[in-house]
Please model this.
Amino acid sequence: MRILYHLPLSPFSRKVRVVLSEKRLPFELRLEKVWQRRPEYLALNPAGTVPTLIEPDEMVIADSGVICEYLEEAYPDLPLIGRTAAEHIEVRRLVAWFDGKFAQEVTRNLLGEKFMKRLAGRGEPDALALRAGYANLRQHMEYLGWLAETRKWIAGETISLADFAAAGHISALDFAGDIDWSVSGSAREWYARMKSRPSFRPVLADRVPGVTPPAHYADLDF
Amino acid sequence: MRILYHLPLSPFSRKVRVVLSEKRLPFELRLEKVWQRRPEYLALNPAGTVPTLIEPDEMVIADSGVICEYLEEAYPDLPLIGRTAAEHIEVRRLVAWFDGKFAQEVTRNLLGEKFMKRLAGRGEPDALALRAGYANLRQHMEYLGWLAETRKWIAGETISLADFAAAGHISALDFAGDIDWSVSGSAREWYARMKSRPSFRPVLADRVPGVTPPAHYADLDF
Model:
């Protein structure tokens, strides 16, 4: 059986779960509390991050970016990184945007400070980081809105890994009540389409002890 | 002509310069002072980072990871991401290690605090960040040493993008005098081999106003 080590609030885990479902690859989820730094897990993935994928042939693949490139090569029937060189470039640029820039400027400052820091026993959220995170989030929501307004899906004509990367971050932040949906109607309409995909439903059904998501979180017509 | 927008101390720019040279693709360098946020440059690369590559057919490729995947697809004669699925996974894992984890835990805390912060007018280096950067660097040098000791090149039998990603960070830190070469003899021996490659010489010849690299920096037998 294919196994995916994950955390429910990890945007990177969410992206890979949705990609596996879109490619119709069955898998079993295993919760990995990365802050415990289990030696058996570090042997699989020395970076100690989630997700890590174990293929049915026992191949181990760490890092969500590496996993998605691997899945694209191994299971190319439903291409998610585009077909032409120009499509590859735009999909990967936006994946790097959300998993690099957005992750650093927003996710790390909000979910990182509010949840991961406490779980790792590194103290209370830093007020300056939270303020920076919310300010950056607003700008990013405007950019996401612009992409959603000018294109069918955010990287172009077809749904792609860029949509799943963006939705991984947005959905985790929405779970924490951090998304102001009044900023961009186009972003909201794009996210409603993402939420309605069958691949996304199990992600929206996840719950985390001690956190109650807002009422609209799993609502498809929010 | 192919154009690469870069900064001399950017590890990501260094990696792409070396990859272009290894693949024997001629290019012209353009210095981009990203902290000036030139509107013409932001139109090419909205993330405002270096490097950005402009191909002879005027295709624009932003983000060093996206550029390297593009170059591998467009110019596959000399493969730098490996040939088998297992090789792809290990090369990309280590690229993600250096350009993700190492960059965040070390480069950002040292070069980011000492140079980029001042250039961007965001004040003086933070003492806590510097201390964390040096402590993390020591652990990373031990890991690099272990890779160099147990393998011919860091991802396996052949030189790969993983070596160029690692050397991009190590060389930029070495320029600033931040590398303690006594930590690992194997890491040092690996880096001497990297320095002796013709693709690496132009990178080592770069100078930055106001910074004098240590005497061993461009010395092949350091």
Observations:
- Chain A touches chain B at residues 46-47, 59, 61-63, 65-66, 69-70, 73-74, 85-86, 88-89, 92-93, 96-97, 100-101, 104, 143 (CB under 8 Å).
- Residues 150 and 156 of chain A are 9 Å apart (CA to CA).
